[in-house]
What does this fold into?
Amino acid sequence: MNQSLKMLMVFLNEVDRIGDQPIYEVLMRRLRKRDVAGATMFYGTMGFGHHHRLHHKGLFGITDDRPITITVVDTEQKIHALLPELRSLVPEGLMLLLDAEVVGGAAR
Amino acid sequence: MNQSLKMLMVFLNEVDRIGDQPIYEVLMRRLRKRDVAGATMFYGTMGFGHHHRLHHKGLFGITDDRPITITVVDTEQKIHALLPELRSLVPEGLMLLLDAEVVGGAAR
Amino acid sequence: MNQSLKMLMVFLNEVDRIGDQPIYEVLMRRLRKRDVAGATMFYGTMGFGHHHRLHHKGLFGITDDRPITITVVDTEQKIHALLPELRSLVPEGLMLLLDAEVVGGAAR
It folds into this structure.
């Protein structure tokens, strides 16, 4: 039960696209295809950063397209194996890795 | 001030129920009753995982009922004491524990 | 690439104000001015805690003004330098610091 996992956080923008598809959709589909243990996508309300487009400036230089955060949960090994692929999909998206301990729910 | 705490993240679905009540409501009420230092509930936009029902399939097998994440902040001792109760309420919900340091705000 | 960073999480309420301005706006503007690497603001759906006003009681004592979480990402040094300023802006807001490793995206 008390397995050690990693939580990957990917920071994107609603408007980021690969061809005619939103990156977040491409990314969620890919994560599902790669059978990661869990992935959840959240809309933020405002944000900024090196990982955000800055040409859509709203109030005080904060972008008016919504930020998106995707959290991905799996083993360190699985997530590290996925990273090259994810980096090629979201070269500008900030990706953070956090340590987590599973204390409940279905482990793989 | 720089106290060491734990952040518990519980992953649920909007449609998960205990009897006729949404689990997230039961859980928030219980956490409040147990006087945890803080709890916040967030809706995600899409998600999948062992902790999500998969029979509500939408686009590429991703559920169309919204994922919910509840973050709970308290001492390691308090959160560990709560875990058996939380596990019995959400046997299928993935629960992750992360290390955090309090650097501002009201400590208990 | 695999740089070690900190993720700061600030827990606020929609209704918290400095003068006539929502604290979350003041805080986001300040973080932008201080040129932090990234900041994202999320609305929660319900929450409670020492960092929340409790006089707006809704269902089972949970506030009906929405909780807000702001995540800030930067180096430990930069975030620690910002903390006194942030604490003076949000004296009641719980602030947590988590370890994170950058595994993709633009580093500073």
In short: DSSP finds two helices and seven strands in chain B. The radius of gyration of chain B is 15 Å.
